[in-house]
Amino acid sequence: MSNPYLSERIQRIQPSPTLAVDARAKELKAAGEDVCGFGAGEPDFGTPDFIVEAGVEALRGGKTRYAPAPGLPELRAALARKYREENGLAGCEPAQVIVSPGGKYSCFLAIQAVCNPGDEVLLPVPYWVSYPEMIRLSEGTPVLLPAGPESGYRVTAEQVREAITDRTRLLILNSPNNPTGAVYPPEWIREIVEVCAEKDVLLLSDEIYEDLLYGEAEHLSPASLSDRAAEIVLTVAGFSKTYAMTGWRLGTLVAPPAIAKAIASYQSQTTSNATTFAQYGALAALEQRDRAKEAVAGMREVFDRRRLRLLEGLRAIDGIECFPSEGAFYLFPDIGALGVAPADFARRLLDQQLVAVVAGEGFGSDRGIRLSYATADETIEKGLERLANFVRSGGYRADS
User: Fold this and answer.
1) Concatenated DSSP letters of 361-387
2) Which residues contact 226 (CB under 8 A, 6 or more apart)?
3) Average per-residue pLDDT in the chain?
4) In Å, how far from its chain's centre is CA 72?
């Protein structure tokens, strides 16, 4: 039932299913239940000590006042340097960089800045749960492009070309991908950027997981490909996933100069600046690159071991198929052969076995469930055993 005191816009928004699952799992744990949580997209490591120390030092040094809306000048300069030297964005300048209160807000800012009512936004499926809601908040229309396991959960340049109309404004590309862990090969990125450039379609490249790659996977920032690419690509990332800084709430955005200037104005009228002392922690991560890369390498090694173990365990369960993720810290097993909706499967799994996963419906999928392996090895082993028992016993059925 609609509420006369709420706007139509706000009533159309659906709550985040990933946060809902995590909240429910935490409630059960607080009540003393032994929950195996695979729901949260959050590293289970602590923030590296040297970053924490930089934040504490900033607090003790009185760095608690307002900062410029787009971010500390020295942090923006360090980010521009990082994007030039490590991502290949040759012309990136500090004025093109916006520091926001989280990668999620950076995505929201980008979409708000470029989309008008009625604009179409091309969105590969499965998608991160917040993209469609952000598009609708801008009064745009999501246009879904299916990407299944047969293509490695990646859309092709030809799919993009065929979907473009005279109302297409933006394509969202998330690589490494949430929820599937898929990574777009460099050649696929080049072909997609060529189509967008030809058709004058903007591209939002969400690269929040860029440092979490496994095996032979390679990351390529679309904005690095050419001067033309730099004119049409908005690059989003942040510190949350790479440095286990989810609670610090620091996102980044690199955009063409005019768009970056407009986004800075928008942020100044909404959140003002990202938390000042937290930005000094991020600055330490960029200024002490050897220490930062060592910390990330240690976390990535653990994630990779967990990825392979969880993949092995899931593939051993009859009725479940699983694509081998190449990045981020998720697996997205296909449960379609079991003949049950993911939401029902996830609800019964939590009720019967105290295993928390995220149903695929929130990602646009009627066949998948998402499991995060950013969790303890013990949880993975226990969770796999419970999941196998759940499927073997038919606990997922409606009459169970």
Assistant:
1) GGGT-SSBEEEE--S-HHHHHHHHHHH
2) 193, 197
3) 95
4) 24
Tens of pLDDT, residue by residue over 86-133, are: 999 999 999 999 999 999 999 999 999 999 999 999 999 999 999 999
Domains in the chain (CATH in brackets) are: 8-47+292-389 (3.90.1150.10), 65-288 (3.40.640.10)
Short-list 105, 80, 48, CA closest to 250: 105
What is the C-alpha separation between 251 and 51, in angstroms, rounded? 16
Which amino acid, one-letter code, is at 31?
A
pLDDT at position 68 over 60: yes
Confidence label for 1 from pLDDT (cuts 50, 70 and 90): low
**From CA 207, how far away is CA 184, in angstroms rounded?**
11
- Residue 12 confidence (pLDDT) above 90: no
Angle, helices 377-392/342-353, rounded to nearest 10 degrees: 110
Residue closest to 322 by CA, chosen among 390, 373, 361, 364: 373
Confidence of residue 332 (pLDDT cuts 50, 70, 90): very high
Question: How far from the centroid of its chain's Cα atoms is residue 38's Cα?
Answer: 16
3-class secondary structure, 47: coil
Q: Please answer whether residues 60 and 54 qualify as being in contact, where contact means their C-beta atoms are separated by less than 8 angstroms.
A: no
Cα(143)–Cα(123) distance, rounded to whole angstroms?
6
Closest-CA residue to 211 (of 219, 202, 203)? 219
Report the alpha-carbon distance of residue 103 to residue 253 in Å, rounded.
8
